[in-house]
Amino acid sequence: MTTESFGPVVTYSRKVFIPLTTLCRDVCHYCTFAKAPRQIRSLYLSREEVLAIARAGAEAGCREALFTLGDRPEARYAAARGALAAMGYESTLAYLGAMAKAVLDETGLLPHLNAGLMGDADYAALRPVSASMGLMLETASERLSQKGGPHYGSPDKLPARRLEAIEAAGRARVPFTTGLLIGIGETRAERIEALQAIRDSHARHRHIQEVIIQNFRAKPGTKMADHPEPSLDEHLWTIAVARLILGPDMVIQAPPNLHAPDELAALLRAGVNDWGGVSPVTPDHVNPEAPWPHLDLLDRATAAAGRVLRERLAIGPGFAREPEAWMEPALAKVVRRSVDARGLPVTDGWHPGTALPMPVERCEGVTVRSGRIREILARALEGGRLEEGDIVRLFEADGPDIALVAGAADELRRQVVGDAVTYVVNRNINYTNICLYKCGFCAFSKGTAKNLRGPAYMLDLEEVGRRAAEAADRGATEVCLQGGIHPDYDGNTYLNVLRTVRTAAPSIHIHAFSPLEVTHGASTLGLSLHDFLTMLKEEGLATLPGTAAEILDDEVRAIICPDKVNTAEWLEVMWTAHAVGLRSTATIMFGHVDRYANWARHLLAIRDLQAETGGFTEFVPLPFVHMEAPIWRRGQARSGPSARETLLMHSVARLVLHPLISNIQASWVKLGEQGVIAALQAGANDLGGVLMDESITRAAGGINGQAWDADRMTAIARTAGRFATQRTTVYQPAAALMTAAE
Q1: How many beta carbons lie within 10 A of that of residue 155, not counting itself?
Q2: Among 8, 221, 484, 502, which is least packed by CB within 10 angstroms?
Q3: pTM here?
């Protein structure tokens, strides 16, 4: 049940614990955190102490600052009121808000606030400076607050008050953590009642990001020092019941430091999929006698259970996928820019188009999902059409399953196309960067956004012809012609471009015009797609680039390119082009606002059209390059796909499109040297073109150059254990073409 929703991934948060104050108005009989003023040297951490802890955490790679504190101590202690007044604050919560803002502003750590009971106004005040908040329900048993019970004398532990605070968090749309403390005298029936209350609140507001099932630990010096601790079996029973009551999609946590390492696998099997916060810097201030396990130990224990340990943010992955719905805009921007399509942070620092070599994780072993993945791979290798859910499972592969998917794709590549790494000698001619359309991902267009790289331009026909002739003289077999939709362009513009190139370079292959340009040209002349494409072919057009596809799923297109051709229109252009005898490429531009289901629908749309027409020559994954993209600059897009996602796109495309499309291209301008080598070892067989004048990725901030010559293609192939060979646009050996021309 757990792995069906979360796969093999078990999350944890790398955090620092900031005990803002250990004063509390409650007197829970098991607690060693809360202290009286006479026991404390400093009643509140100073701003400098708070920031020192946070900075140490940031230097250690932490992403979360967990603020722990007692519940409204000023309501009980005059000393607390005096300390707050001396600092200029009227309440502990006001001081907490100021310190959370300081940590956020000065260190970038995302605050998570455990501040006790709060109401609507409190959540509203703290929401702008926190990624998430939390309050343990602990129990639904009113009797535990009666005389003799562990919560006697603790007004904030009354279940009704805590449930109302959880409800208020839901009304405020705060990503919220809650949970149970088991073994303090409650019955199993009372645990079930508490879990049902959490379930019902979540059903109303959808705000519970995780539920902690924490086992009581007896602590010396407390009234419950001799109280029996719950057994492992009791903890496992409660976790399993929580999973059944809360459902397969709820994140369930158990603190790993409260169990022996050899017990962790049992917790996972019972339904746990999160280990909570683990700090390389600070102790667990609530359970100081139980140190955090070293991350290497936690990783090994998780892997031994067939699971994969992955870091998360203070806001859980399910909420981080749509942070605007749960956070203030400034915080949402930070979160969206830092996560992958799963809502998990990209921790290796790599992004497409940058100079950092793309890292590749290949590890041995199996996971709880390896068997399912092998079944999917077997069907793909037989050439069967996979379902959307199966493709999503492949994109979710992590840990050892990455190598499983990549290995299957690479073996399929070897069987289908052999060991040759192909490339074409070509030149890009982007004749204008002025465009009527408002694609949020595009930094090339100068018609919709100011402050982007470079001036607006429009090449005249003479310059287009000169560049085409120069390309032919330099050995190019292809020119690739694309541009923005200039307000002065109509269908005759594209016909004239073709005539110019054909005159200037009679033998060169003309690969030109995206489906958007074709649609624009046809509509401005009042022609059908069939008639306009026929005219383009007669004037020398040989093949079409498969750009403007982005993601062939209209729920994504409505966000990133709402005024562009929709999915059906893009597919119609390609169907018509294939019908008139023009072949084309197919692309996907991924890693912005999209999810794995969108990728799966895109691949299936391409496969289904190819099954009908056979007109696609190759599939080209194009990872989103974010640096100068308007949608990223506004904080509305992720920072491109992760290295894991990028590698898997090449592998999954090979598997899903088999046997209908044989060629999978790796884009060197997006991936860099290490990235294309990794892709060549994971199903790709082509490096695209030498390009000569790449400008679109460069406009987006990419720095991998404007051209890769044949020698570099050869060296890259050799490093990948293969050999390079030049091809034509339609994947014929270039040597044969050159011989025929002679």
Answers
A1: 16
A2: 221
A3: 0.93
